[in-house]
Amino acid sequence: MAGSSQTDSDRYSEEFNDFDGESMEGADYDLFEQYLAEEDDLGLPERGDLREGTIVEVRSNEILINIGAKRDGVVQQADLARLEREYVATLVVGELVPVVVSKLTTEEGMLILSIADALQKRDWLVAEKMLESGEIAVRKVVGYNKGGLLVEFGHLRGFIPASHIVGLPRSLSEDERNHRFNEMIGEELPVEVIEVERRRRRLVLSHRFAERKYREERKTQLFAEMKVGDVVEGEVRSLRPFGAFVDIGGADGLLHVSEIGWTPVSHPRDVLQVGDRIQVEVLRLDADRSRIALSRKKLLPNPWESIEERYRQGETVLVTVTRVVDFGAFAQLEPGVEGLIHISELAEIEIAEPLKSVAAGDRVAVKILRVDAERQRIGLSHRQADDLVGQTLLETAVDQMAEQKDEAAMPDEAAMPNAEATPNAEATPDAEATPDAEAMPDAEATRS
Question: I need a labelling partner for 403 at 20 to 30 A (CA). Which of 20, 202, 367, 445 fits?
Fold first, then answer.
């Protein structure tokens, strides 16, 4: 039976050769070509398909693209106008681009393709995947409306409601909120997709959820990488009576009030402000409790290192009383350096209540009894101070304060108005207010 078997090609040949006894030429050949063409047409894409194609020709008002089908496709000028000029400039022969089939054929037998729809469709797919996975992405703020921020999401626009923006107080007035929104334009924020409705063109993002997740992941990473003694830069996020919380790159560390500087600080706000960028050193790491202790003081010059060169036993100096305690009074010699005036050295023995002889803020002359740089202690005596030297120091200090006040009271020549200055022009009127957009904008409302 093997000798009588026929291949498909043999059967095709017999069918066409038997027609009127002629070979496969003329009308028969045309029919065969049509048959093969119909076979190829079965592989044509359907309307709405997302494909990738290769640019084969760039014309003045359209672009021809090969998507692997028998027929080429064309991207018309109306679609190109929906794209950013910078992106259109990158569309050159040989470039691979995503396209969506908008119409199956034209009069010329070509497919109508859309790059703009393809880019948006691809971004919708990315958004849906992010919604399923909970992935965090960084997006740039490009605008705002009365309800929140607009961010760039590929060729779409995502919306962050005001309630999902980190660091935005709810007590702000509408003008204050708009001012804050305007300041945030250009910032890049971590965001998490929380709602995708392609039909309604809604793409809603959360900065708050993303920040929380990002900080948790970053904190874990910091505890794995960071070690005690590391010096890092951080941003002051909040101030409390006991210290300041500093963001050191995704995790907050506590800068205790005693570690802000060598000078005693009653409240961190006396030295720091929210938003300050400062250098800090890692003092302690507690991964189990997720706590990081920081120090700014250790990075500042230690005034006690050369204390014995500046202050010598037996000399009389002027100090400022900082606080009075049961056993005496503490006095500041210079920022970061305090000494103790023991109660027995405050006043002569005949004074019944020596603690009442001084008060916090008093400028008094004292004699240095001892200097212990290693233990950072200085013993002082108000009772034994040289009265003549003390009086001279006080008078000098008063004169210096008077000079400083005079200098501060003198007007700045650069700030003084010119006598020939032209009269003030009328205030420039504000630009015409733009009406508020709806709080929840379409993701495709902004031109791609």
Answer: 367
Looking at this protein, which amino acid is placed at residue 340? L
* Nearest by Cα to 368 from 331, 324, 322, 323: 331
* Among the listed residues 270, 353, 357, 371, the one whose alpha carbon sits nearest the alpha carbon of residue 321: 357
Look up residue 52 and give its amino acid.
E
The pairing of beta strand 156-161 with beta strand 328-334: unpaired
Q: Which two tokens stand for residue 385?
A: 């101070």
111 Cβ neighbours under 8 A, 6+ residues apart: 44, 45, 67, 69, 71, 72, 73, 74, 101, 103, 104, 105
Cα distance between residue 19 and residue 30, in whole Å: 14
Mean pLDDT per 10-residue section of the chain, whose length is 448 residues: 46 45 50 48 68 86 82 84 84 87 73 86 90 92 92 91 90 89 93 91 93 85 90 93 91 92 88 93 89 92 86 91 92 90 86 85 92 90 85 79 70 51 43 45 55
DSSP element (H, E) containing 221 = helix 207-225
Question: What number does CATH give the domain 308-394?
Answer: 2.40.50.140
Domain map of the chain by residue range? Answer: 9-41, 50-120, 134-212, 226-299, 308-394
